[in-house]
Each structure stands twice: as structure tokens, then as C-alpha cells.
Design goal:
The protein is of the alpha/beta class. The chain has helices at 67-77, 95-98, 101-107, 120-124, 137-142, 225-237, 258-267; strands spanning 15-18, 21-30, 33-47, 50-59, 84-89, 112-115, 158-160, 173-177, 186-190, 195-199, 203-205, 213-215, 244-247, 256-257. Helix 6 (225-237) crosses helix 7 (258-267). The model has no long low-confidence stretch (mean pLDDT 94). Bound molecules: zinc ion (ZN).
Length: 270
Amino acid sequence: MGAVVKVVPDQDEYLEIRPGLFRSTIILTAGPLGLPIATFLIKGNPVPDQPEAHEWLMVDAGAPPHADMIVQHVKAVLKHPKDSLKYICITHAHLDHIGASIALLDAYPGCMVVSHPEEKPFLCDGMSFKCCAGDTWIFNIMKHFMKGSKIRVPEHRTLLLREGDEWEYSGLVKVVETHGHTPGSISFLHVPTRSIMIGDASKNHMFLYKEPHLSYPLPIGTCHMGNAIKSMDKIISLNDHVDTIFPAHDYSPEGISVAQLQGLRASDPR
Ligand SMILES: [Zn+2]
């Protein structure tokens, strides 16, 4: 068997892409197509009296078929016996972003899932996105085929946050409301590295292209495109606080720049 050629350098393992910020990308294969799905780890506070051990935060939890692999990858970074996963920050409750959440909550009993209150019915109660009043014909047709998730995060393991809410890690990770893709979709800004993890607010994919291609969120799974576009403009407006944008589906090892997102809006105004 030949060695597997990695499409991205962080494929199937966490790599430190910025100081204290790690990304791992797993490619979900579906026939000839591959969808890269990234999850992120953020180094939090040192554990008292154990300066070499830390609390950790995660952003998004990947796809269900990868749940066991993701837990292994997380454990490979959280090696110290006193290391702990404190929070799983969920950009939105689509299945490919919450897949390992239950397995991780089981592996780390003190861990909580951070989400937006508007996302709770989809994350905790199995509500289907078909209840969303979409603003595109594609979504309004496709939503009839959508089912509620079997993954249900127990409510007592959630921490529901809106933009501006203070929480234990608000100095390190800020919630930015970027609704539209789903009713409660949010982004997470890692303050020290000026990096923002935006979930599906934009994608950098190779579907139909030879090179990574930045695009709007796909209308097929985007509840409200008008609000999603406003959210893209909001991310662009964070220019003074952000150097790098990390979409969850990204073939670029370096993420994308604010200027690139601005370029997309300018070249394809909607
Ligand atoms: Zn999504």
C-alpha cells in the first residue's frame, strides 16, 4: 500500500496553524467528491499547580462517521493526564459540525457545548431545518427532504451565548453572530491570533474546480441567503480585528484573507 498523499498538511491530525490554535482536516469522501471538514483546538488556561497541563476549547466537532477518529486526534493533543476539553464551540448544528460532540462529551465529562440560543432546538431537540422560512427556491424545495438530527446534545451540557455575552473565555474567544446559513449560526474569533472560524459562512472548495475556490455558502443548505450575505459583509467589516478567516470546509492550508472574501463579494455581488 502506497503512502497516502495529504491534500492539506493538517489532514487527519491537529497542526498548530497559529500560536495556540490547531486545525485538523478530515476529508469526507462521497464517490469522486471529497469534502474537507475542519475542526479546531484552542489552548486555554493552564491547570492550577500543573503549568504544563491546560484546559482546551474546540471549535466544531466534524461529521458523524469520523467521531471516533476525532476523539483520538483530540486525545493525541491533550496528552497530559490533567489536560481537559472544557468547551466544544459549535458554529451551527448541521450534522457535519456536531458529529463527534456526544463522543467528546462522554470522553470529557466536564465539557460543555457552546452554541447560540437560536440553534438550541436543532442541537438539543432534534428539530429539522425544514421549519426555516427560506428565501431561496433551492432551500425551500430541499428543506422538505431534511430530517431532524439523531445527535441530541443534552441541554444541561450546553452554554448558550449571544454576541457580547461575557463568559469564562470571552477574553480569548469571542462569539460573532453570523446568522443566515442557519438561524443561530455563529463564528468564533480567536482574539490573540486574529483568526476567525466561520463554519459555513463561506466555503473554500474544489467542487467543479481544479484549485481551491472561495464561494458563498451553498444555497441548498442555507436557510436564509439574504442574512448569510449580510454575515459575510459583517466578517469583512471585522478587518481591524481579523487577519485570517478559517471556513470549516477549506482546501487552503493557510485559511483565507479578509481581502479574498471582499474580492468574492465584489466579483459576484448579490
Ligand atoms: Zn452548514
